[in-house]
């Protein structure tokens, strides 16, 4: 998996290859330690958390969506990573706490537990903040 990701990065990416490979490794390493709600968490959230870690490590590539872009909070990858970054700005440590709650299961209500708002409201607030 990691090997094929690196290869596709090298073949398909004309920017800073070392930067891109490091970013891909952050993403893939996150999958090794993150919880997935015993398989019940949305796939887009899993991918979004992996890209969130990549973002916070300083390896968000320039082709990613900008903050506020995207159609759904659980669209995955960069879209969800930007949204999680917004959520974490409301409460530092949010993403780590969300991951911990996903150890044994998953519910959208985890957002309410941690931030006091449901995830659809948070998405609306996020879009409004960036006029999207
Ligand atoms: Zn992934």
UniProtKB/TrEMBL annotation:
Name assigned to this protein: Plant basic secretory protein (BSP) family protein
Organism name: Abeliophyllum distichum
Domain of life of the source: Eukaryota
InterPro entries hit by this protein: Uncharacterised_BSP
Xref: Pfam families: BSP (PF04450)
